[in-house]
Amino acid sequence: MDMEEKKMMKIVSNDGSSEDVEVVFAFEFKDTKKEYVIYTKNERDEDNNITVYVSNVDRSNGETKLLGVESEEEWNRIKDVLRELAKGE
After folding, report:
1. Does residue 24 fall inside a structural domain?
2. E strand spans, the chain
3. Which residues pair with 36 in a beta bridge?
4. How many domains in the chain?
5. Domain residue limits at 22
6. pTM attached to this predicted model
């Protein structure tokens, strides 16, 4: 049996609360040098699909922070990555 080990990370909210989430995929756009992480809390929507979240990874100031996606162009590129991941399943 091939059991793939889950990669977990802890997210700390602005209010100081934290939760562990499962990392689905991490990647970087070479042209912008922006890093992203796709993760899940293993929640399901009304169609029983697992909900995933995408954050921009900011490593400046010696501290790793997760930021929102800034532009429609950025979202479109991320959606292309998500589509490619879905094809591979």
Report:
1. yes
2. 7-12, 18-29, 34-44, 50-58, 65-67
3. 27, 56
4. 1
5. 7-87
6. 0.84
